[in-house]
Amino acid sequence: MPPIPALFTLPIEPKGSIFCTQPSQRVYLLTFDSPPDNRLTPAFCTAFVLALDILDHRFPKGLVVTTSAIPKFYSNGLDYESAVKSKIFFSDVLYPLWRRLLTYPMPTMALINGHAFAGGLMTAMMHDYRFMNPHRGFLCLNEVEFGAPLMPPMSSIFRQKLPNPNTYRTMVLEAKRFNALEALQEGIVDGLGMVPELLKFVEETKLVDKAKSGVYGRLKREMWRETVGYLENHVGSQTRIKEEVEADKGRADEEEKRVADWEQSKGHRVSKL
Prior knowledge:
Layout: E1 8-12, E2 16-24, E3 27-33, H1 42-58, E4 63-68, E5 73-75, H2 80-85, H3 89-102, E6 108-112, E7 115-117, H4 119-125, E8 129-132, E9 139-140, H5 143-146, H6 152-161, H7 165-174, H8 180-185, E10 191-192, H9 195-205, H10 216-223, H11 225-232, H12 234-265
Parallel strand pairs: 3-4, 4-6, 5-7, 6-8, 7-9, 8-10
Antiparallel strand pairs: 1-2, 2-3
Helix pairs in contact: 1-3, 6-11, 11-12
C-alpha cells in the first residue's frame, strides 16, 4: 500500500516536523517527528498549535489524532531546565497549547506509540481520548525523581480525568511506570492498539460526526473548567504558589525552633543515623 500523502507539513526547528495525513475520511493524523524524543520545546509547541489551527479553520470538522514518528517516544516531556529559566514558556507557550487541546472544537485522540513521560503524558491527558501501543512504552510522571513540583493545571487534569484517585497517588508519589495493560486497567487510556484499532473505535463511537453541532469545544470547556481556569489564570496560580512557598518556609522555621527548644530544655539529643 503506498504511503498516505500529507495534507500539510510544518517545520519544528532545528530538524523536526509535524505532518498531517488522513487515514480515513475526516480523521486527521498529526505525526510529530522532532528527534530525539519530541521534547515540548517552544518550537514544538508553536508548530503543534498552528497545526491545530489549520485543521480547525481550513478543513471539514472531524477528529484529530496525534502520534509520533519516533517509535520509542510519544513525547519525553519538557526541556525542563530551559523551561524553568524562561519567564514566558509556561504562560505563552505550553499553557496555550494545552488549553487549545482541552477545549478543541473537534474530538482529539492521543495515539501513544511509545514512552510518554512527565509533560508528554500531561499533553496526552489534554486529549479527549488515549490509545496506547500494547507492545511498547510506559506512561510515567517522574517529577518526584528529578525534583520538579507540579503546577496547578498539571495536577488538576489528572484529578479530573482519572477514575481512581489512588492511581494518581501512585503516579505522583511513586513515579510508577504504567505499561499498556496497566494503563488500560487504571483508566489512563481508553484502548490498546495502533491506527487500525483506533479507527475501529472511531467508527463504533461515530466520533467524526460529534463536532457538527458546533458545541463540542464549549462542552469540554465546562467539563474541565478547573483545569481550563488554571491554564487561563496562570498569573493568579503563580502568585498563590509563591505565597504557599513563603508560608512553608515560615512553618519550617517554626518547626525547627520547636525541635531546638526541645533539645535545649533537658539536654535531649536524637541519635545520629
